[in-house]
Design brief:
heterodimer; A: mainly alpha; Sodium/glucose cotransporter; 24 helices
Amino acid sequence: MNYYLLIAVFVIYFVMVILVGYLAYKRTHSSEDFLVAGRETNPYIMALSYGATFISTAAIVGFGGIAGKYGMGILWLAWLNVIVGIFIAFVFLGKRTRRIGRNMGSVTFPEFLGRRFNSKFVQVVSGLIIFCGMPLYAAVVMIGAARFMETTLTMNFSLALLILSVIIAVYVFYGGIKGVMYTDALQGTIMFVGMVILLVFIYVQLGGISQANSALTNMANLYPASALADGGTGWTSFPTFNSPYWWNLVTTTIMGVGIGALAQPSLAVRFMTVKSDKELNRAVLVGGIFIAVIPTTAYIVGSLSNVYFMQNVGKIAVDVVGGNIDKIIPTFINMAMPEWFVYIFLLTLLAAAMSTLSSQYHTQGTALGHDIIETLRSKKLSDNASTTLSKVGILVAVVLSLIIGLSLPGSIVALGTSLFFGICAAAFLPTYLGACYWKRATREGAIAGILSGTLSSLFWLIFVFGKTAKGLGICKFLTGAPMLISTMPWPSVDALCIAVPISAIFFVVVSLLTKPLDEEVLNKSFKGIDKKSKGDA
Amino acid sequence: MMVLGINDPWIWSIYILIILSALLCVVYGAINWNKGDDDEDDDIPEDDNITLDDLDSY
């Protein structure tokens, strides 16, 4: 590999990102610009930004590696990403979020919930959950990107972390959400081009779709013993029902990330950045294609890399990389693809990481500045002071992620990602759905739903869910046993499966037992929606 | 039955579902390309927006 050429490609990319960020800075004049892009984002930019934020390096390298070891069952996640993450999210939640957000003048996800339920408490608590939970997710995405800069550019890991943080911080700090979304669109385009080339290349290289898949099906006898022991059955078949891998695949990966995406604050806020439903309609088309291509390609390539490796080095993927499945996709790219593509793919990965990170900093920073501090102050701030507070929040978020990123152990990228998606789903999903569709939902119901979901999710992660309970060690310290329940399948059942129903029950029951919200708040929230629904009917 | 070189219907069906879902997004976006322009709510007066002071504190 030509390092000078690689460094030149990286420098050109960083200069482009900074230029696009500068453009956003010039177009950011008010706090509404800084937080929701003046509610006038182009649908192409909105869709690509949503998709690029959604898909991080973890989805491409982490989950692609899982496909390399366990096979194509993970393609169900790609399907949910399209049907739930794009279609249902945009058509059924996005339009209402946009309209209610605009009716109530909300500019962040916690503020959307707070104003919909007429409660500062809801806004502050939601902001706190995001501010406390997101650094872990941001740190693991940053670790992924820095590790990859460390290996490809032979750069010191800490220096890589620092460079990434500074570059992203600059355009988020000055450009606000416009900086985030414009650079996301650039990065999303790079990701899309890179993945399309990869998908076409692998099927052409292996002789076409049916031939490549048949070759993989015929390799079932070579399926790794460790994957078989977990419940995997082959690269082109679904795992055994009720096995540890089945639970992990279905509850943590497919449901956790697939459905959890609906309640991701950094994604939901994007619905409030467009002017009308027309932009959302158009974004469904762009986002649908984007998401159908990117994760699907990663999972197919991860699985089919076994055929390539077998034909060329006589080993299956997991053996080629010595058991470290995070290396399957990068190793395949380095061995199988032409050198010019290796550069494109490296940029693709960096773009995937940076686009997710920038949104995390923005969401986390505004949670601290706008939702927590500004809401707790009794006096309303001026536009400038409000933006400054969000910027301070962003700086705190960047520093916090950097510190966590430097101190976390290895092999935590996929787990950290799934954990945060799960906690968000438990805390916000029932309440968010209710906010959009259920007028009888009350402020007390929302508070009960958010708190019960968060607490039950944390309890499950600390005391029952095997991976985290053992890793954290709190359960062992308090009770002497690594987990409270060790009989299968409970240690493999994701917190989401328990905490989301608990949150939903609390939300509904408490709402029904308490006084409905003021008619005035409801009428204002749903202004334009009722008329539209009646018109549609 | 082998479809696209895959025996397990749980896997080959997902190939088809992904393609169909992407098509659904494309068709939905194309049909509604010019629909949903903002109409009546374009002119929300500034003072009509809720401010922090209007929110209840819990």
